[in-house]
Amino acid sequence: MNKPTIIDISKATGFSKSTISKSLNDSKEISKKTKNIIIKYAKKINYKPNFFASHLRKNIVKNVAIIIPNILNYYFAKVLKGAQQEFFDKGYDLMCFVNEESISREKKILEKLKNGSIAGLMISPAKNPFSKKISKQLVEIQDYQIPIVMFDRIVGDFKCDKVFIDDFQSTYDIVKHLVSRGKSKIALVSPIHETLIGKKRYDGYKKALKIEKIEYDENLYIPLNSGNTIQSEITKLAISKKIDSIICIEQHITVAIHSLILNLKFNIPKDIAIVGFTDGPLFEFIKPSITSINQHGEYIGKLSAKILIDRIENNNNLDFVEEKVPTSLIIRGSS
Amino acid sequence: MNKPTIIDISKATGFSKSTISKSLNDSKEISKKTKNIIIKYAKKINYKPNFFASHLRKNIVKNVAIIIPNILNYYFAKVLKGAQQEFFDKGYDLMCFVNEESISREKKILEKLKNGSIAGLMISPAKNPFSKKISKQLVEIQDYQIPIVMFDRIVGDFKCDKVFIDDFQSTYDIVKHLVSRGKSKIALVSPIHETLIGKKRYDGYKKALKIEKIEYDENLYIPLNSGNTIQSEITKLAISKKIDSIICIEQHITVAIHSLILNLKFNIPKDIAIVGFTDGPLFEFIKPSITSINQHGEYIGKLSAKILIDRIENNNNLDFVEEKVPTSLIIRGSS
DNA sequence: TTGTATGCGTTATCAA
DNA sequence: TTGATAACGCATACAA
């Protein structure tokens, strides 16, 4: 059986195409009686309007796309979940793309999205450097009147709506918390030091140290590049008692540090406290469990979706919004 | 700027609509010279064909949908990742839906998908009972010539392509492994005992016991309904030494059992071994780490996508395939 | 090699 | 209250 069309209904019921169309759209031009006949028959043959035809005609799109770096990252999965719920409830279909942290993949995805199939885009770009080419593609998408909401990994000088956590506050809060636990030799481990997020977290860390009158020691700030030297570096710092606590920005590295510290026979949190970032259950089940920043991924996803829908539906020319979402600290055994 | 169309190019270059269309599709009817002019101009104004128009005209769809129960489940996230990669590489857009284990949500999603916007569907249905209504909707989708691949949570009597792990073998292998570790009082905890998967895993368990000449004890088979009685039940069995090992089918319950056993001051794996199911890193970082079945989610996703694309593109009437993917056992500290 | 005309399925405008 | 017709943007059969 082929997909039935309005013409099939027309032939079967004897009414014209336009009468059918109006009835199915519940127009008040058509009499109840006629509508009933038509709707009943449409149901019977399981008629659904052709997606492409109606969209072509109406020139409206109810598809949106989301691009995330990595679906296996619990935080991004939560964002996706929140966004998906919001979009679905508002009648939008969500197309989902994953860039796998690859700029070339991201370019391909964006290229594709220019075909006009989407009404809006949510994006958290692949790790920096944010390429000029990506930026150019995003601007082209905006030129087509397709609004963009950038979330989490926002890019400072790109103009669009943005949703992100309060990165400054997150590390600021962690330092305050650690100090309240009697810690003062606080290391910061960051695999994303070159990103805006990384810089803000670094700033929050530094600011809190200042407020707490702890002198900043550049040896305790450990930006990671390849990620291989971290073991020896942490080991050195720990053994020489230069640190009594570690803040780590990335979940898997946090767990690695956790293991390392235990293997070195230090006590967590007495000798060395650990605080990390994640939305997931991983830190909860480790022994000792790890104190962490809750990034509220689901809320970020929902909020971004709401903002995007608002842009799509009320294409006002209001200034771009920048929503800064507060984080919260979940205190567990490691601090 | 509005999205440019073929007509804009036609006006600007002086060629007719069809010459433009043919050039952009690299038809060999058109001279190189003309093509160059047209393509160059199209690039300049950043022309992209209208998605809806071309699809309406060609009556082909390069969208597919996937419905998964829960995006926060690491296994399903992996399936999604694998599927997404495969589809993207083959030029398909993937629309992603999450039923959140809700039958009513699933019904809404399926209702929507009947609008003809997809060329194929991958689905792992919400937890059973697999409703008659869902089945009816799926059949309707098939009636529109939209192929369906059901993965993981397959439904026995529904006719479509299916991809799933060898559930029988998974528990069979676990029992064999536990026996090789000297265990003989093996409990099986299952929160999905009413599903086909649950039954097969139960069968594998029973069969392996038989092969190993261990008498089946129905007290050691613990189907979970609300999931609240498990604590006391496990505690009783452990204290009375009725069990020396536990197989658990669900990841979070496995972790809960793991904690419970440790709290009861038993040694894992000496007193009680534990084996679970998951694709994720959770079991790796717990102490002691947990032996588990790797369900190869990414492969399942890729394979399902491949099968679906094959159905879409070579709409042959071959019999439905049922791909049974072997699992592998990752042996860790808990056994 | 290029242009003309038609239709994909729907909706909207206007006429009956 | 219903019907005829045009148009959305593109692709193709056919004519030139």
What keyword list fits this structure?
alpha/beta; six-stranded parallel β-sheet; DNA-binding; 13 helices; Rossmann fold; homodimer; 335 residues
Topology:
Two copies of one chain form a homodimer.
Chain A: H1 6-13, H2 17-24, H3 32-44, H4 51-58, E1 63-68, H5 74-89, E2 93-98, H6 103-113, E3 120-123, H7 132-143, E4 148-151, E5 161-165, H8 167-180, E6 186-190, H9 196-211, E7 221-223, H10 230-239, E8 245-248, H11 251-263, E9 273-277, H12 282-285, E10 291-294, H13 297-313, E11 322-325, E12 328-330
Parallel strand pairs in A: 1-2, 1-3, 3-4, 4-5, 5-11, 6-7, 6-8, 8-9, 9-10
Antiparallel strand pairs in A: 10-12
The structure holds a DNA duplex (16 and 16 nucleotides).
Characterise the protein shown here.
- The structure is a homodimer of 335-residue chains.
- Chain A has helices at residues 6-13, 17-24, 32-44, 51-58, 74-89, 103-113, 132-143, 167-180, 196-211, 230-239, 251-263, 282-285, 297-313, and strands at residues 63-68, 93-98, 120-123, 148-151, 161-165, 186-190, 221-223, 245-248, 273-277, 291-294, 322-325, 328-330.
- Chain A is of the alpha/beta class and 335 residues long.
- Chain A folds into three domains: 6-49, no CATH class; 52-164 and 298-324, Rossmann fold; 167-294, Rossmann fold.
- In chain A, the strands form two sheets. Chain A has a six-stranded parallel beta sheet, with helices on both faces. In chain A, strands 7-6-8-9-10-12 form a six-stranded mixed beta sheet, sandwiched between helices.
- The first copy, chain A, binds a DNA duplex (16 and 16 nucleotides) through helix 2 and helix 4.
